[in-house]
Amino acid sequence: RDFPNSVKLRNDNVKSKKMMLFRNAIILILSLIFLVGGGICIYANQLLDKIDYTPDSGSKVSTGSLFENGNASSGAVSAKSGVIGGLYHDDAITNILLLGCDDYQKNDSGRSDSMMLVSVDTRHKKLKITSLMRDMYIAVPGSGNDKLNGVYGHVGGGGKGARKILSTLEANFGVDIDRFVIIDFSAFPKIIDRLGGVPVTLTEKEAGLVNAYSGDSKQVHAGVNNMDGLQARYYSRIRAIGNDQARTERQRKVFSSIVDKMKKASLPQIYSVFAYILPLVTTNMTKNEVVSLASNSLTYLHYPLKQYRVPEEGEYRDSNKNEIFIDGEPTDVLILDLNKCRKSFTSFIFENDIPTGKYSG
Predict the structure, then answer these.
(1) Which residues 6+ apart lie within 8 Å of 64 measured at CB?
(2) Residue 312 DSSP label
């Protein structure tokens, strides 16, 4: 027969054992979390170390909302805007120059075959892409005039070439550009394939050219196709149909399709894509900036996508025969009405909030 004190003692022992088991379980779970978390941090750091990072020789006064005051978590309304060194700037808008380069020929620094400015606008909650026409005849700081796509090779391509294009665009259009990303000729199809292809609507003529010249054995047809890397790259470079304006429109279609596809991805899937892409690009974005971009990507990807092109119709004319010579050869270029271009370009980026006055930091 049990006495009251012995029953109480046994119950206390049972409770004590349960508490010890619970405590040990908590310790085990926390240990696993820290172990896995530490492993993830190490893995993430190893991935970031694979970026072809090309640091700037000097730092800008400020970068955009992606990296500073106006990111998605803190809100853009408190971000400041103004003029920095003659450039329109807004903390709530991050401008990233995206360059697709045809540097596949041996001993040739290549040209920036595709140029787009990607603007993450947290003030107006929009994602904006601006195609920059490759044949714009433009003033290059310290180098006279040239077609925009030729500027990349002035200093040997790579990070130096990207900075030269960036400074050229800033000098002509007055828009502060925060960072650049270079995707070379061979990397582009790998990135598209990693995404599982991209859906694009093709005309009959476009489909015929893709089948004939993309280098892919898979056939496409008129209508919607899920194009793989080789097909998407060739489609983005088609010159035989329409003019270069039509070509930039095809490039924006591919970009828009990528955004639409990423919208449906989970954060782990997005990180997986980032992990694959990072070693394939050259950029002056730092590790912390890449992490910030990835962390807020689901927010930015769901902003409405707005598209634009520089120059727009009515803001340029085609050069006359033998009017412009480059390297001693007559060259067809676009002669800009720079004042019109600058006004419409800044209006697209900043909308009705074009910065005035000196940026106060």
Answers:
(1) 70, 90, 91, 92, 93, 94, 95, 120, 178
(2) P
- pLDDT for the residue 14: 55
How far apart are alpha carbons 129 and 117 in whole angstroms? 6
Which residue from 167, 174, 113 is spatially nearest to 141, judged by alpha carbons? 167
Residue 287: burial class (beta carbons within 10 Å; 0-12, 13-18, 19+): middle
Q: What is the pTM of this model?
A: 0.82
In the chain, DSSP finds a helix count (H) and a strand count (E) of 10, 17
Closest CA to 149 of 187, 180, 97, 114: 114
- Identify the pLDDT of residue 114: 87
Quick one: how far is CA 345 from the chain centroid? 19
Q: Where are the beta strands (DSSP E) in 203-300?
A: 223-227, 281-283
Average confidence (pLDDT) per 10 residues, the chain, 361 residues = 53 61 61 45 62 71 53 56 89 93 60 87 95 94 90 85 94 95 86 91 96 94 96 92 89 92 80 80 86 84 94 95 90 95 96 81 62
Q: Give the pLDDT confidence score for residue 57 in this predicted structure.
A: 64
Sign of CA dihedral 182, 224, 246, 237: positive
Return the amino acid letter for 241.
Answer: I
What burial letters (b/e) apply to 123-157, b meaning 16+ CB within 10 Å?
bbebbbbbbbbbbbbbebeeeeebbbbbbbbbbeb
Distance between start and end Cα atoms, the chain: 82
Q: Which of 74, 68, 73 is nearest to 91 (CA)?
A: 68
Give the 3-state DSSP-derived string for 133-151, with helices as H, strands as E and coil as C.
CCCEEEEECCCEEEEHHHH
Beta bridge partners of 52: 282
